């Protein structure tokens, strides 16, 4: 990625923290020097830390925001530089002095520099020397208070809309399911068939409502997870059922692995269901007539299970692989496309999977289908080793991304 | 022995449909259409399990849950929260407040029965 000065002060890191790895030789701080404050201004507060987390460079916006004395902080660790609310929040957000830290957190500061409650977005990105060796961390702070407030309002609205839509749907789904299961008496064969497709359409509608709500709940940047234990195979079959009707129209068949016995995972049930739904929806959408969509849940090393969705469809040109998880990105022109969709599916999938400390892996070539996969912790793994494993797998995933950079990802909704 | 489930839910449609699912699985069902009535019925009917909606007029599900857990007469009855709305960390919040589980609407009838079977009789 090309790093112009505006890149560093601008938005590319905030939008794509995985792709951008700035080098220490960046002259990027000079742009930010013109900013008087990081708060409410269009410029970000930027701090460059070396591998021991000592301050290498700091722009005036960051000095002001962190309540540091000008130039006094160079060469000192961040925790030695000040005790302001922002410094405390930053220090509490990420493990310090750890190589290859990256990610985003939203920090709420109760009273920032006398301006009341403000919301800041903290982005961490590893820095590399031109020879590729690690050179510390770039830390960017941006005031996102107004976006945050707008997000809250929209989430509230969407949540109410969802409630209003789901309430009647719950009644319909329950009645139809009782009928389909013959719990209310026998049905003729055509009656059973008709009610079976009514049920599939209900599941499809449910998925669409989830997607709508998802626009709000995950768009708030730092997706929080609501972790519980649930049966993965049951969820897989429910997601598949929701797309059965669409798949049949396209003469696409599902091949779901019959994993013997229960497979209890620990994750955010609703979010994983949405992510899996988006992957299955894509797989069906991009399949050719008569294709097969394969779903597998495979226990792998480290107490994890790998969930994969594989299609035999049109595949994706490698030149789009780096961009497919971007919001609203679609391989084809939205005005001429015939696949439809919002361009948000994979954006959400990545957010969900990353909020679980995992990564989405993609394997695809044009004309040869695509395979998407991610990993989740199996529920009966002891707490400590599970966390270690999750962190380990995340780092492995990041490493893999970096090696192949734009070679592994596929785009679509 | 007949086991009783109390549904606290303001939507009649959901009460009726959920009741059919539970009765088909052999449970006896009591219903209350708001939190106040729910708390009273929990004391009088002594259900083996409570299904509790969150968005209700009057006292909402969270407040109802708090009252149920505060009252020694009802605190031992397992409560499953079921909701059609997105609640930030709803599952964690429910369990922290003493609920046995958390469930989203629309639900799969089979899953509901599975969950009820899992928690019923687990009361303290």
Structure description:
The complex is a heterodimer of chains A (413) and B (124). Chain A is α+β, with helices and mostly antiparallel strands and 413 residues long. Helices cover 40% and strands 19% of the residues of chain A. Chain A has helices spanning 5-9, 12-15, 29-32, 60-65, 78-81, 85-93, 145-180, 189-217, 232-249, 269-285, 345-355, 383-404; strands at 45-49, 55-58, 103-109, 118-128, 134-143, 227-231, 253-256, 264-268, 292-300, 304-311, 361-364, 370-377. In chain A, a hairpin with an 8-residue loop joins strand 3 and strand 4. Chain A is elongated and about 80 Å long. The model of chain A is unreliable at 1-41, 219-223, 333-337 and 381-413 (pLDDT under 50). Chain B has 124 residues and is α/β, with parallel strands linked by helices. Chain B has a five-stranded parallel β-sheet with strand order 2-1-3-4-5, with helices on both faces. In chain B, helix 2 packs parallel to helix 3. The radius of gyration of chain B is 13 Å and the shape is globular. The relative contact order of chain B is 0.18. The model of chain B has no long low-confidence stretch (mean pLDDT 91). The chains are: A alpha+beta (413), B alpha/beta (124). Chains A and B meet through helix 7 and helix 8 of A and helix 1 and helix 4 of B.
